[in-house]
Design a protein that fits this description.
about 15% helix; six-stranded mixed sheet; six-stranded antiparallel β-barrel; 2 domains; alpha+beta; 8 helices
Length: about 500
Amino acid sequence: MSFANNSATGGAFPPSLIPAGKKQALDTNYLSFNGGNNPGDSDTFAQQYLPELYEAEIERYGNRTLQGFLRMVGAEMPMSSDQVIWSEQNRLHIAYDGCTIASNTTITVPLEAGKNCAVRAGATIVISADLITLKGRVKSVSAVVAGPPRVCTLTIDTYKVQNMASINGKTNAKIFVYGSEFGKGTQGMEAANTAIAGGVGNDQLVTAITPDFTQFSNKPIIIKDFYEVNGSDTAQIGWVEVATESGQSGFLWYLKAESETRLRFEDYLEMAMVEAEKKGAGSALDGSEGLFAAIEDRGNVYNDFAGAAAPGSGALGDFDTILKQLDTQGAIEENMLFLSRQTALDFDDMIAAMNGAYASTGAVSYGLFNNEEDMALNFGFSGFRRGSYDFYKTDWKYLNDFSTRGNVGDIDGVLIPAGTSTVYDQLLGTNIRRPFLHVRYRASEADDRRMKTWVVGSVGAATTGLDAMQIHFLSERLLCVQGANNFVLFKSTV
């Protein structure tokens, strides 16, 4: 079965779906009282026959708002600066990839700009290349070569000398430190790593390893909207009863228009945090980093999640690949999945294919919902467990709605770690806990710009000479995506 290419199921946006971008009198704003729906019905609507008139509007597209995603997964907190800076911990252990086996006794290690080699003489290391693994001890570490490329060279002894020749010349080797070894009556590690004579700046050997961190930042954007109705039309009575989100109802059309402008603006506040892009080279825009951009830049992207298949392949195989990637990152136990309709169905089929081994809701802790399954279901979530992880899954309307990402179809869902992360706050000078995903809005004792609304004009208590009512909306905010390496973006490329 297939759907016709019409306004209800797909294809181009019909004119009726798109709000008018210009305030003007259009034929679509009015009903004809001197003609019917069919030829020959002229002069029958008001002249001869009494119609059965439904005064209330029909909710043709159901609940049209898209907000609520960020309220579920994060929080909103004030700020008073043009920029938010946070620091994230780096890894605890020492490892390098892309190393070159220069000889049977030397390994060249690539370094980031401004970084020293953290491997010290006396350290014992695991060396791996093309699935060949051996172990050795570092005898000495050379001075840093500024490059490019920026490198240092390890001179090593291997425990099984004959094995080193099998990977000699490899340029894709990986190493990591697993301990150290020293002889009896010898000096400690610090004596083996003295500064190189004549070395300056970073061109010296490391004697002790100090904690390192990576800083990230984001800037807010200002979002605005506006509605205007002339003074005469505020007193105009219509014949269609309208209702607003605040519960107001009546026959004043401007109430409906103002309400929809407000609803659309509140959706924009969330959509902008999801879609925002940072300023690129040569751009005249300011920009900000939204959710999708942050995950693509610093997180994990999984393309073309498979449909249902037997365990070990298809969707389950894809999902297990994602779990293995999460294992290499923070391995956060509880995670939330916000999915498009098709991807949610793929997950449902995947869970069903597990034969109940991991799909039992009783196996899920529901820690996010005070361990109450009913609470999770009331919020639209279903839970399942795979490996050592708990997942809470729900549909994300934003990815299904025909007037947003549902019409594009390139984003299939996001995986977001639940709970909070520990970060160093530059202003407070201490470690604090923050939700992995949260909004910061501009506010101070003088002004709160989270969601500003003000009215000017002649309606009510006149504030200007303009015979109209103008309603302004404004917000200044940004999104903090902390620990993005624990997030997953599901994308479709086909």
